[in-house]
Write a structure and sequence with these properties.
Blueprint: H1 3-22, H2 27-33, E1 34-40, H3 51-64, E2 69-78, E3 81-91, E4 105-117, E5 120-128, H4 130-137
Helix pairs in contact: 1-2
Length: 145
Amino acid sequence: MQSTDVSEAAKAVVRRNTEEVQGGGDFEVFDQLFADDFLDHTPQPNMIPTKEGVRDLYQRLRTAFPDFHADIHWQAADGGLVTTFKTYRGTHLGAFLGVEPTGREVQFETVDAMRVRDGRIVEHWGVANLFSLMQQLGGFPKADS
């Protein structure tokens, strides 16, 4: 397979995760897309850096924000390493990161890189603007203007 084909196939795997698992809550697809030896190099607070840790995070997000979804702005790939810039959106209807439901609509940006090998996600690195999310939920005060 040519490098371009590998990159496009890897981008499709990451896009499926974003749309069908994170956005649609389809955990059967999650099991298809994540390798059993998956490693998260930048886990979120109180999360283990494994496949089960990511499943737990995605389930907590879907519980806290039942309409959770992402708008993918762009993706770039170098072989099986896919970088994605996206904005997550959702309505806060369940507890998340210690903040009880507010009913607020929120959005926050994320840049992540996922390595795909043999059609499965094997590694992740990412930066999410959780500070902005916590401000929107009232967990951190907004700076005075």
